[in-house]
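**Tokenised fold:**
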Amino acid sequence: MTFYIYIIQSQVDKTYYKGFTENYFERIKSHNAGLSMYTARKTPWCLVYLEKFEDKKAALIREKKIKKYSHEQIQKLINSPANKYKGLVEEWLKSLPNDVGD
């Protein structure tokens, strides 16, 4: 099974929310639908960081550590090679037909 640590950013006030999930796509949809008490007032949210784990315990330990990060540390993490979200976007762009946007 695969587990994810994710960071989303509010498009309202640019704050970050850090979380753990098995399905990041559905989890972010629920944040944007207002189904989470902690994020409902700051929708919409945008995924800015994703880290993949095969071990649940390791993912939860990592989440706990990231939740203690400063704003500056989070920004560095988002721009780091550990951010799997950047790779997902690149993969998606490569999968588009060549004539998209022409």
